[in-house]
User: Which sequence fits this backbone?
């Protein structure tokens, strides 16, 4: 039995448990996010059938020919909606593109919503009519689970339980289906996804179709993350790290290439990047600034920070 690298918590303890169960959950989640920045979550309430159906639809999309997929790549969108072709994105410290292509689904608001101008329409794929529809259902399920996790984090940070609620309602979150195609020749120093940290508040990831995800621990060792059945992997993003002045840890992670005998196997992974609204102030919380932990960051809004990072990773010019 492989030793677990990240702890596991049961979200239903928080959503359905009594006061003692909730308190235990908050302590365990806070400890995991403070010490390692990653945690496995069961009892998250995201239907297994919905995950499986979206996986099938995603696989069907990536199996389409390149010219067809490229019809769904929207110029000027910085990859925030629709398809992004192979080799466009790279980690901020790397010049070499990651070995992946992806499709993104974003927030939808009614036509008369004041935020409508900020949220472009999602891209619908004629060849797979259910793809975006299923993606939006999964998006809502992730939003709900992510909101509960942030309530627990707010309590851990001694903030009001609903601290994040107004910030993430109709927030700029992204559901991304990532396809790492089979590796057909010796890669030029690239790996499937070079080491990086996520931009957002938290990321929720449903089990990938193959291994390869690794995190960098505080001893500078790369350790494999292998979620169990029906477990989602959650990690802290840079926005939450900034807000907590490095108290909660945005851990470096990567997706390594499989052993050569498995090069022929593609990998599909579905992360949900939970973002707040663009105007959220990410200035460090006063209680997270102490003599032992002085202020590390200049004030910035979530929108400004996202814009800066999209440029660094090559999606925005």
Assistant:
């Amino acid at each position: 039995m492989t030793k677990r690298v990240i702890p596991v918590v049961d979200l239903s303890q928080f959503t359905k448990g009594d006061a003692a169960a909730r308190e235990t959950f908050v302590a365990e989640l806070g400890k995991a996010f403070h010490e390692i920045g990653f945690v496995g979550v069961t009892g998250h309430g995201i239907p297994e059938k919905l995950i499986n159906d979206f996986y099938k639809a995603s696989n069907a999309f990536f199996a389409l020919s390149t010219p067809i997929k490229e019809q769904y790549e929207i110029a000027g969108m910085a990859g925030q909606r629709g398809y992004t072709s192979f080799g466009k994105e790279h980690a901020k410290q790397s010049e070499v593109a990651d070995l992946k292509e992806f499709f993104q689904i974003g927030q939808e608001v009614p036509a008369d919503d004041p935020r409508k101008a900020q949220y472009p329409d999602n891209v619908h794929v004629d060849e797979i009519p259910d793809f975006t529809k299923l993606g939006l259902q999964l998006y809502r399920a992730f939003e709900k689970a992510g909101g509960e996790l942030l309530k627990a984090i707010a309590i851990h940070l001694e903030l009001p339980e609903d601290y994040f609620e107004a910030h993430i309602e109709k927030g700029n979150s992204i559901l991304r289906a990532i396809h790492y195609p089979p590796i057909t020749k010796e890669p030029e120093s690239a790996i499937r996804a070079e080491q990086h940290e996520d931009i957002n508040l938290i990321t929720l990831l449903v089990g990938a179709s193959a291994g390869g995800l690794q995190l960098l621990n505080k001893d500078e060792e790369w350790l494999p993350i292998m979620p169990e059945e029906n477990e989602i992997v959650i990690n802290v993003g840079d926005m939450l790290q900034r807000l907590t002045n490095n108290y909660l840890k945005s851990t470096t992670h990567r997706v390594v290439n499989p052993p050569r005998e498995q090069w022929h196997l593609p990998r599909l992974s579905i992360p949900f990047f939970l973002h707040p609204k663009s105007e959220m102030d990410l200035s460090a919380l006063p209680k997270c600034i102490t003599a032992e932990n002085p202020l590390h960051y200049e004030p910035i809004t979530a929108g400004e920070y996202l814009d800066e990072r999209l440029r660094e990773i090559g999606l925005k010019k």
The two ends are 46 Å apart (CA to CA).
